[in-house]
Amino acid sequence: xxxxxxFGVGLIGGSLALCxxxxxxxxxxxxxxxxxxxxxxxxxxxxxxxxxxxxxxxEAADVIFVCVPVGLxxxxxxxxxxxxxxxGCIITDVGSTKASVVAAAGKLMGSDIxxxxxxxxxGSERSGVEAASSHLFENAYYVLTPQPGTPxxxxxxxxxxxxxxxxxxxxxxxxxxxxxxxxISHLPHVxxxxxxxxxxxxxxxxxxxxxxxxGGFRDITRIASSEPTIWRDxxxxxxxxxxxxxxxxxxxxxxxxxxxxDGDAAGIEREFAEAGQFRKELPERRKGIITPLYDxxxxxxxxPGVIGHIASLLGGERINLSNIQIIESRExxxxxxxxxxxxxRDVDMAAxxxxxxxxxxxx
Length: 363
Ligand SMILES: NC(=O)c1ccc[n+]([C@@H]2O[C@H](COP(=O)([O-])OP(=O)(O)OC[C@H]3O[C@@H](n4cnc5c(N)ncnc54)[C@H](O)[C@@H]3O)[C@@H](O)[C@H]2O)c1
Ligand SMILES: O=C(O)C(=O)C[C@]1(C(=O)O)C=C[C@@H](O)C=C1
What we know:
Elements: E1 2-7, H1 11-20, E2 26-31, H2 35-43, E3 49-51, H3 54-60, E4 63-66, H4 73-80, E5 89-93, H5 99-108, E6 113-120, E7 141-145, H6 152-162, E8 168-171, H7 174-205, H8 208-212, H9 215-221, H10 228-237, H11 239-262, H12 265-280, E9 294-300, H13 305-316, E10 321-327, E11 335-341, H14 344-356, E12 360-362
Parallel strand pairs: 1-2, 1-4, 2-3, 4-5, 5-6, 7-8
Antiparallel strand pairs: 6-7, 9-11, 9-12, 10-11
Bound molecules: nicotinamide-adenine-dinucleotide (NAD) and prephenic acid.
């Protein structure tokens, strides 16, 4: 029997618990300081057992997942150090930054207790156990940052366990992780928040900004709704990397300013073409890094039956729809539906079918 203890049964900890729970030979214990949370985890069936005693959970565990906000990781590791952990116990975390926690763990761990940094590259703007899902990590990358001294069989043991997440494991150095993830995750969160706040300030003077905000604004700003305390910790922790990235970002914006000042149409076109090409080459369907890529937009009359009609047309042709969203861009006039598909073939077939039924479709 492998006993897994999870500290912080929120979005990520809860999703891991759901991946492990019920698998042969695995028992999952969740920990929270709050008795009401402990009851909730068990009632919702996220864990086998839950406790408010950190010591009890830690000392029973073969593998410990620390899934708390980044700013608390080091104090959790220090606390774990106080307990009589099982020999061979593996401690891992899921924090969005890796260099500082790996450095702290190196100082703390005793003999026959192993720390391996971890970071599943999947998540959501939502938080808490209510948002947890056993599918969250499917096809996403899951970074591990073992130290050169970590015995290979220990790393293999963790990798074998993580197979239950259906994620792809990738190993890298913790500092390299923070450089890359700073660029592809932390910087975009800063940009999304700054952009939303810029528009929010305009909107204070004229509420039409919010009303007209349509698909483009929603697409680029979803992550601005992420949990503030989680992101406060991540940004502060990775601040040196972010300050460098933001200086480069200023350079990108300056280039756009110059192109606009110079009326450099070819330059602007080139920027879009190059960006579009790179984005097209992003790994397809890597859940968590990028969600459905194959979207089409349908103008729809403002009546309730239309969504059902479109869904049954697609279903009738066995075209798999992976998501449907009403874009509330206009009041009292026809709206726009965004339909998302898993592959190019499905989106093309859907466009053809809907046009044949006189819908106005934009791919
Ligand atoms: N949200 C994402 O998309 C994402 C993706 C990958 C990794 N991560 C990392 O996973 C970790 C957990 O993030 P999450 O999104 O699951 O957050 P969450 O808010 O959903 O869960 C955090 C958990 O930590 C617990 N916790 C314990 N002490 C706390 C305290 N003092 N303040 C707040 N929470 C406390 C909470 O009860 C909760 O169970 C973070 O280190 C984060 O960087 C997040
Ligand atoms: O999809 C989202 O909402 C996310 O923010 C997920 C995301 C990301 O930026 O890609 C966020 C933080 C993580 O540490 C890993 C993944």
